[in-house]
Amino acid sequence: MCRFDIAAALCGILITTVVASPNLAADSRPAASQPTNPAPTSAPAISPDLKPLLDRAARTIEQFFGDTIAQPYETHVFANRAEMSAFAAAKWKMSELPCWAVAMGTGSTFALLAPQSWAKDACGHDAADAVAAERLITHELVHVYHGQHRADAEFNQADEVGWFVEGLAILASGQLDDQRIRQAADAIRGGAGPKKLVDGWSGNARYGLAGTMVRLVDQRLGRAKLKTLLAASNNATILAALGMTEEEFLAAWRQSFAQPAVAP
Ligand SMILES: [Zn+2]
What we know:
By secondary structure, the chain is of the alpha+beta class. It folds into 2 domains: 2-147, no CATH class; 162-256, no CATH class. Helix content is 45%, strand content 7%. It has helices spanning 2-7, 51-65, 81-92, 118-121, 130-147, 162-173, 178-189, 206-221, 223-228, 235-242, 246-256; strands spanning 32-36, 73-78, 103-105, 109-113. It has a 4-stranded mixed sheet with strand order 1-2-4-3. It is globular. It binds zinc ion.
């Protein structure tokens, strides 16, 4: 759901380094699009080099949720930023994509700027870091999975639970690495951590902040109950499942950084 991310100018892709194994040559045809089924293995517009990444991302999601992306969704691979921007404007009425936005995911759609175009058409990504690229793609496919469990599949009203939407994608994709956890810990120690859930997806440390918040939800509730929150559209629903007030949850989350081992 980078749709939401981008709208808030915070997208989940502003990451580190990404990829492209030299042969991660995604399809370069303009706005190639076609309905795709759960594991997008037979889509003609997906290049042979990109397909294994998508397959591995789908497997990661299945391992995390014990479930596959059940409903068909469109997959679009764009040769350049202009084409992706035109698509986002038409589909989601997004005015302009920041340079670091290279992918988007909602319940209906997975959109990707071809990794071989990142060097010239994006910032903040290295298409030679295959691990980061795979996690980035997985992140967006988690949004696809998540969107399909929401009444609002396109995340049009997801601002309140942005921390949960993004934190879930970060946690499930493997993006919650030690560096991001340290960034979150530093932010909290420096007094820059969010004081409200609605602010959980903000600031430079947002990956670590939102990711660790959802990690705590996962630890408290267990994976099965975490999955019941996919449909949640407000924080009251999530807090009711936790049996905690917002203050109690945030205090427990801050406390989790005080323990020596913060790594998962
Ligand atoms: Zn995201």
